[in-house]
Structures are given as C-alpha cells and as structure tokens.
Design a protein that fits this description.
Gyrase A, domain 2; four-stranded antiparallel β-sheet
C-alpha cells in the first residue's frame, strides 16, 4: 500500500563544492519530485539579476571631448579605450556607493587592470588590457565607479553628470553564469527524489557562496509580503495586503534604528517605544520632543528614511489607524 504523506520531505543535505576561487557548486537534497526545479529556477534568476556588483559609470579623459575622440600618443581610439574599460572589474574598498578615481600615466606603457588598483578601488581582473601608450604620451583620466545591480544604460546616467564626463553603460552583475541540474537521488529505496546542483561562476567581485547567500536574502525578502497575517473575513485587496508589512515595520522597537545614545535617550525619556510612533509624526512634532537638538532631529529623520519611512513615503489612514490600535492593545 502506498504510504500517505501529510507534509513533503524536507531536504537535509547541503554541500558547497569549491571548484575554484570564483566557481562553486551548491548541492542540496533530497527534494520531492518537482520541488528542486521550483526552487533552483528562481534562485538562478535572483543570482543573475539581484547580485550587487561594481562598474565604471562615467569617464573624463583630459584632452578628449567625446567618446569618438582620439588621444595623442594612445594607440587606441577613445571608443576602443571605453570598450576595454568596461571589461575591467572593480571593487570599491570602502563603504561608499560611488567613488571618483583619478589616474595619470606616461608612455611608453601598456596599461592593464592591475595598474588601476589603488587605495580607493581594487581591480579583480588584473590582466585585463586597457590601452597602449607610445614613448611621448601622457594620459590623464578620471573614472566614476559605482555600486549597483543589473544593467543600467548610459542614457539613464547622463542627467546626473556634468558636461566633462562621458556616461558609460554600466554592467554591475558580478555573477558571470548561474546554471543548475536536477539529478535523481535514492531515499529509503525510493529513487524518485531529487538533488539540485547549482553552479555559480563570478567575476571575482564577490565569492560564489556570498552571491548565493545574497540571492537567498533577496528571495526571502520578496516572499515576505505573503507571510503577513491577513484577515480572511474580508476581501484582500492589493492595498490591504500591503498594510501588514508596513505595520510590522512600524511595530519594531526604536532601538532597531541604530540611533546614537543621545538621540535614543531623548526618545526613550519621552516614552516613545515603537518606530511607528515617530514615523507618523510631522517634523514640527519631532522638533518639540523634549531636549531633542537639531543634530539629533536630523539623525532621526535620516534613520527613518533608511528604514523605509522617508519624507516621500505617505502612510495611509488605514495603516496609521491599524498601528495605533495595535499599540493600544
């Protein structure tokens, strides 16, 4: 008689097979039939679309006015120089989302990726070729390197640059490839269970395992909207479904904002406990909090924005009323 199940089998085995510094296999099993591909396919999509990387977004070359110009003493035209630059992969060393890096070279010299590493950025493709200078050449240029995800065309970046810079198409994705295979695996004499093998190759900006962790975090964050407690006694509209995550954020304690002791103590002494209590306050109301100075006010506003309650965020009356009801219970 066929065994009756009341819940699917949970996978127990998880292995990371490190093939090289920038390549690894993520192996997990056993899955019920059809479950492996159901998980592997979206993970692959998140790996390719949501992994955070770095790319040059703009360049300024001394003596060049546009991307089709030529530079005295450099063998390559500026357009070829830019193509070569896009093949060089950078990492910002600090926490800044964008840095401006200046370079100056004298010929004769063959410039490679390794020549571009400095205190601000690391180049993870040191052997990548950039340009060739003859013996009397002088090349000075500045690059803006930014952090981001996916692909951003140069047209979307031009408005944020001054006229001296040339906008570049930005390829941020640090994952070069993400593929998966599904294999059968035996569980208690049953060969119909599945193993997923996810192969990840990166460009060196991030390790394959870190890329996998990031993809999991993004996937969990995207699914979180469905995990909220929503009443089934009334029709669930899109607006209604969005209320619960907002209220959950508002119910978080103020200490989760990471405020300085001075700012936190001002709010604590005024008996504010939840983030939502200050998120629904106007700036004038915040200014009137006892002993709250200008710097503390600016810090609180900044931290609220980072948490998702910036000046451009408007909370509906339903969300505010639901929050007030919760904290009064």
């Amino acid at each position: 008689m066929k065994k009756i199940k009341t819940s699917p089998l949970l996978p127990q085995e998880f292995v990371v097979e490190q093939i090289s510094e920038n390549e690894a296999n993520i192996v997990a099993h056993p899955f019920e039939v059809g479950y492996a591909v159901s998980l592997a396919h979206p993970l692959r999509r998140f790996l390719l679309s949501s992994s955070v990387g770095y790319a040059p977004v703009a360049i300024k070359v001394e003596g060049a006015k546009h991307e089709f110009d030529s530079v005295r003493g450099m063998l390559e035209d500026l357009s070829d120089f830019i193509i070569n630059l896009k093949g060089i992969r950078f990492k910002i060393k600090g926490d800044e989302p964008e840095v401006e890096v200046e370079y100056s070279f004298n010929g004769p010299k063959e410039i490679k990726g390794s020549d571009l590493s400095n205190d601000q950025v690391e180049v993870v493709t040191p052997d990548a070729f950039l340009a060739t200078l003859n013996e009397d050449a002088e090349l000075s240029f500045s690059i803006k390197v930014a952090q981001g995800i996916g692909y951003v065309p140069s047209e979307d970046l031009r408005d944020d640059l001054d006229d001296t810079y040339i906008a570049l198409d930005a390829f941020f994705t640090p994952v070069k490839s993400a593929t998966y295979s599904i294999e059968n695996v035996l569980v208690e004499d049953n060969p119909n269970f599945e193993k997923v093998v996810l192969n990840i190759v990166t460009d060196g900006q991030i390790s394959p395992l870190d890329a996998f962790r990031n993809a999991l975090e993004v996937m969990h964050a995207q699914l979180a909207v469905f995990s909220s407690e929503i009443s089934v006694k009334e029709p669930v509209t899109i607006e209604r479904a969005q209320e619960a995550p907002e209220i959950k954020k508002m119910m978080a304690r103020i200490d989760e904002l990471g405020l300085s002791p001075r700012s936190f103590n001002c709010l604590d002494r005024s008996e504010y406990k939840y983030i939502g209590e200050i998120a629904i306050m106007s700036q004038n109301d915040l200014k009137n909090v006892k002993n709250l100075g200008k710097k503390s006010l600016e810090e609180i506003i900044e931290k609220l924005a980072e948490y998702g309650f910036g000046a451009d965020v408007t909370l509906s009356n339903d969300i505010v009323d639901a929050f007030k009801k919760k904290i009064s219970e």
